[in-house]
Design goal:
five-stranded antiparallel beta sheet, alpha+beta, about 450 residues
Amino acid sequence: MACFDVSSLFTNVPLDETIGITLDRLYRSDVNTPPNLPEHVLKHLLEMCVKDNVFVFNGQVFYQTDGVAMGNPLGPILANIFMAHLEESMIFCGPNIVQPTFYRRYVDDTFCLFTTKEEAERFLVFINNLHPNIQFEMETESDGKLEFLDTVVERRPDSTSHRTSTKVKQTDKGIYYHYSSFIPDSYKLNKIFTLVYRAYRIASDMSVFHVDVEKLKKRLRLNGFPTHLIDQVTSKVLMRYHAQQDNQQDTQQPDRERVYIALPYLGPVSIILKRQLTKLVQKFYPSVQLKVVFRRGFRISNLFNYKDKFPIACRSMIVYYIQFESVVRQMDADKVEREKRRSNVVVLSAPEPEKEASAEQKKKEDKNFCSNVLGIPLKDVETCWRAGKIDVSKPDYLRPLVIKLKSEGLVEEWTKDGKGYKTESGFWINKDLCAADRKANFLAREQRRTRLQKT
């Protein structure tokens, strides 16, 4: 028995090569249907997500030249894609090598069976020469035992089968959260259930399971867990997964919509509130299954910032989350507003009519201004009005004059295709833009001004 571990796999994954492998599998494979997304777009998105990684350590900024950053969500996926490609194209199809009689891999850890130890060593030399970025380390069995992941595989001398048990690291102190911790009781029960079920799934037979549970029970008792509670949960695991696995009946329950709510944990009062809410929902909304999740409260660790703050200049400035529905509503509102203003032009600094004049007289004076000063024929004007309200605190402020023309072609004509037209009288005629378009034009002007200043 031998196991092989890749040294620092994530930070040694060749990104360009792995992205190329991924695109070949997606777009040039006979097995998969190509996605609707264009290949160059997906390639650009992958490069944005995994390349140009910077990090801060001891106040200094470092740039990662290759490999996937630790903590990147795409890290395990890309690492597994590269390792699978390495297996299929080189390990399994490689010439003149000693193939293992048994081969299983989990990300960067591989378990193999060989006839002799020399075969395992030759296999190690071969796989270490497959790629310059990937180097394996080998560990062989000792006294018929080999630790792999969280299991201990033991070779039985009188049988061809193997015996598996739960691995406990030498550095393991057996420290869990204490039974008297201020957390819901369900968390404590689930802790026992998870550990016992893990031991049950790993154990090759019930004698191994009994030994592993006794060790686990000792560690749990050191953390204040009562013995009767551990025995109760252990019996529950065995009844659910062992005793009834042969005569288990499929009881189909009607599907109910799950609704989750998060509440702060305040002790027993939170448990009582959860029980009451569940009963009320079950009584008045039987088609709903309420799931109450307790949020963690304030911790002492919240007072200490143990991570380096990332400089603003090194941040990507990418929006990772947007309120999609609100954005769509705003886009629809901008579209409606844009349609209303499609036939409008606006004139700034146009003189206002007399304040004492009536509304009809003011509109007549504005139309005369359009024809006599701006030169727009009245036959092309449908109506006109002043935008905004009169500001008494600013007596010199002139409200914009909005002119609604009878066709969009006239708007393009009088604004010179949207660029703006300066009349002989010195007034500018521009398109009547909505707030979103005005903001976009302002940002574009600022970017042009910045580029001109740099040049």
